[in-house]
What does this fold into?
Amino acid sequence: MESAIKELEERGKAARAASKKLAFLPTETKNRALLDVAEALIDKQDEILAANKVDYEEAKASGMSEAMLDRLMLSPGRLESIAQDTRTVAALPDPVGEIFEMRTLPNGLQIGRKRVPLGVIGAIYESRPNVTIDISSLCLKSGNAVILRGGREAVNSNSALANVAQEACSQAGVPQGAIQFVESTERALVNYMLKMKGVIDLVIPRGGPGLIKLISENATMPVITGGVGVCHTYVDKSADFGKAVAIAYNAKVQRPTVCNALDCILVHSQIAPDYLPAIAKELARAGVEMHCDERAMAILEHSASLKLVPATEEDWGKEYLSLKAAIKVVDSLDEALEHIEKYGSGHSEAIVAEGYSAAMRFLNEVDAACVYANASTRFTDGSQFGLGAEIGISTQKFHARGPMALKELTSYKWIIFGTGQVRP
It folds into this structure.
């Protein structure tokens, strides 16, 4: 443990030194490095996938859940997607150095804000090796150094990806130490990392509720939390039938193991007798187990080939991360809003409605990072929002909310131009 702490301290010093140079690194150098990282991900996919296979087989043998195994797994297609996201980050405007809200005061002072990097980002994450590249690319483009500490279950995958990124960045002229990867998986190291105030400027956890709670309660530096998504889709009485089926199906089935997947369908009682059999039929084809309240069960219990389970209180506010969904019949938009307020996690919520007033009330009153009208919650993603990638999805309100990308990894400083003014 002592040697691991020493290693972490050295990596922290190197990251801090690199951050001073990164803040002024030309955009062209950063973009070249990002494009080289994307190319290296494809060129070296065999060694990356071999490392990932070791992690996957060990995790499967240990009894890891299907949801977590899906997050852990890499494939040629997923690597290409990661590479494309990296290229997208390279193509985005560089936020560093942007001057905004410049104005002239009555006394002649010109005052405005200039966007600057945060410094050193600490990323502590579980299972998903794509986070290694997503966070590294966003930190590089926004002028921040990063210290990566992944979970034991993905250590080989993360190490291979970090090596690829480090090598590509070094060859492109990025300062040494910009991307730091902590090889040790000692759990106690996380607690030590959380005490490195003065070295690490911001910590971002990516993982389950346990990890997020641990970091939120013990970090000595600012933390941005999120990722836990209890996502609802409310089907209003004015909903277009076809849209309502397609949206709920996509939100649940397209990739059920992620935080923006649907967990609960709320259906207005006026449309429920017709809508529920239709959506249940589609969900059943995908093998979805439906946890129904009494009214939903009464409508569906005579349908064949459905996986129906009576809902309990535990089903409301539950993030399933699997082919399971809760279904509840409500009598009004008000009731749907009350349910979401009580059980939502502030991640992503959706309404399907043709009625303008109902849709706008939902958008205005639901307190969540992302609120949709007539679209799937599966779009809550940095790449899908045109941000290239994301360092996380924040469900808090300071200083970032929703998918966090380049601008969310910067701060600003006031810049003031005078011509000799003194304060009277």
In short: Residues 216 and 223 are 6 Å apart (CA to CA). The first strand starts at residue 99 and ends at 104.
